[in-house]
């Protein structure tokens, strides 16, 4: 008997135009993460979500703004030169 191997589910890229209001599945595709991770972010109140009845909806504009708020950009202090500036020797 052949041994079955588990196949990891592949996340599908969003095809076509992204809707202005998304459900969990559409948001997961848009962000490239699993639905369970989205639910975790909702529980932690880290993603902007609206609840309509028992379903969640996400505004694309709010999600895009949320992503922009969380950009990781180095500050001037964190940057360092690979080649320090030459210091002139004292005379």
Question: Explain this structure to me?
Answer:
Helix 1 (24-31) packs across helix 2. A hairpin with a 2-residue loop joins strand 2 (50-52) and strand 3 (55-59). With 91 residues, the protein is α+β, with helices and mostly antiparallel strands. It has helices at 24-31, 35-43, 60-69; strands at 21-22, 50-52, 55-59. The radius of gyration is 22 Å and the shape is elongated. It has a domain at 21-69. The mean pLDDT is 82. A 3-stranded antiparallel sheet has the order 1-3-2.
User: In angstroms, what separates the terminal alpha carbons?
Assistant: 84 Å
Percent helix among the residues?
25-40%
Query: What quaternary form is this?
Result: single chain
Instruction: Give the number of helices.
Output: 3
Mean pLDDT: 82
The order of strands across the largest sheet is 1-3-2
Question: Secondary-structure element sequence?
Answer: EHHEEH
């Amino acid at each position: 008997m052949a041994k079955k191997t588990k196949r990891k589910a592949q996340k599908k890229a969003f095809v076509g135009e992204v809707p202005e209001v998304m459900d969990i599945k559409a948001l997961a595709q848009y962000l490239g993460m699993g639905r369970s991770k989205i639910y975790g972010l909702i529980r932690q109140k880290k993603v902007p979500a609206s609840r309509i009845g028992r379903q969640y909806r996400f505004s694309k504009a709010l999600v895009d703004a949320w992503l922009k708020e969380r950009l990781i950009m180095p500050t001037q202090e964190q940057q360092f030169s690979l080649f320090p500036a030459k210091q002139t020797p004292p005379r």
